[in-house]
Amino acid sequence: MNFLKRSWLSVKTRKGKSLLQIIVFSAIFVLVLAGLSIQSAADKSSDLARQKLGADVTLQQDMDKMREKMQEQMATSGEGGGRMRIERTPIDVTAAEELTTYEQIKGYNFYSSTTGLASDFEPIENESSTENAEEEGPGGMIRGGMALGDVTLQGVAFTDSETDFMEGNATIVEGRHLTSEDLDKNVAVIEQSLAENNDLSVGDSITVANPSDESISSTLEIVGIYSTTSTGSDIGMNLAAMNPYNKIYVPYTAASTLKGTDYAGTIDSAIYYIDDPADMESFVEQAKNESSIDFDTFTLNANDQLYQQMVGPIENVASFSKNVVYLVSIAGAVILGLIVMMSIRERKYEMGVLLAIGEKRWKLIGQFIAEILLVAVLSLGIATVSGNYVADQMGQQLLNQEVTSAETSNMPESFGGRGGMFGGQLGGRMGATNMMQNQQAVIDELNVQVTGNDLGMLAIIGAIIAIFSALLPSLSVLRLQPKVILTKQD
């Protein structure tokens, strides 16, 4: 009789043991399939997180290298105990703009900051703003021999992608944001309290002067008014310029001009927003190989903290699911092996008779493997039917965890269409609550199901478990001679 036919008759005849094997195999398959579906959901969630959050790279002066150079100079000149002064080196705008054409980025912003003197309006001051000044000079407040001014000018390329606006700490209440079209123009966005204190509105003008040289001044047209929730620091509030209400946003060209001719065409730093955190390293490498930036003076600092924070729990769950697949597969093979061994030991007489009449050993081993594979096929069908439900529950739990762990992320207008200065439309400014709702809607659309790849991998794992669980017990018995098997039959 063909050994495949014998395996079918054996499974059919031994209904109790076959049912036990089907139950054990089905439990193993369901757990393994759950682990595989979690990994698939984790991969999809990670892709979604990369598309949603991205990452950013900051171009700025390499302070570590500057510090080392200053220490070497002081040691060479014998001024080891002197006071170290690190000279700030501005970044050439042309060099920074080279990186904006790289395909890895979805947006950027340039920064140039300085302080100024309010010439025709009154800054908002605390009672302690002037009490801590060392002296009062013709250029305003002086601290440590440096004129500080009484307002801060934050030069940017886009206000909607400035940190405070992206994090929801500042919002436009009247007028508009600054964009790339405002470069080389004398325009400004001022804080609401400063505007109300001076009876200013959109369309009015203010004049700000250089604290060290009042002959350098700029008259700025107000194009927007914003409100801030920032309260500033206790130390910073002692200085009028550090008061968050005295922070004025201007194009970085206007801030650089107010610093003086030495700073024309320069910025303090630049931030490049990477579309996919996986492209961060390639962006940095391309910049080092192709751009004209002096990397002996400047550095590119990569930041994918938000992405790592979001995918951290996902990766932990995926790692756990991988361990589940390994443990369940090994434990399942051991348990099934013991069951098969018990079954084979009870069938020693049958094997002895078959061997005595000339049946080949490999056919007997094939019969046991075929029996367990037949059980595995039936169990695979059961796991496939219930697998979608398990995968959906596991996937939804994973996605809910992602939403809970994710931080709110805004998508400014300046991250719009490629080309030019990224001035396309991507939906404007959204508050933290609206953004979370939008993020929730996008994530909820992800429908995680058992895929063909998952079932294919499950079938391979099941076949390996079945073969090992049947092969090893079979070999331990079939190594005996037919006469020994028959004489030892109980």
TrEMBL record:
PANTHER family reported in the protein's UniProt record: ABC TRANSPORTER PERMEASE PROTEIN (PTHR30572:SF9), MEMBRANE COMPONENT OF TRANSPORTER-RELATED (PTHR30572)
Broad class of where this protein is predominantly found: membrane
Domain MacB-like periplasmic core, first and last residues per copy: 131-289
Keyword Membrane: yes
InterPro entries: ABC3_permease_C, MacB_PCD, Macrolide_Exporter_MacB
Subcellular location as annotated: Cell membrane
Domain ABC3 transporter permease C-terminal residue range list: 325-482
Residue ranges of the TM segments: 324-344, 364-385, 455-478
GO molecular function, one term: transmembrane transporter activity
Membrane topology: Multi-pass membrane protein
Pfam families named among the record's database cross-references: FtsX (PF02687), MacB_PCD (PF12704)
Keyword Flavoprotein attached: no
The protein's name in its UniProt record: ABC transporter permease
Originating organism: Bacillus yapensis
GO CC annotations on file: plasma membrane
Keywords from the UniProt entry: Cell membrane, Membrane, Transmembrane, Transmembrane helix
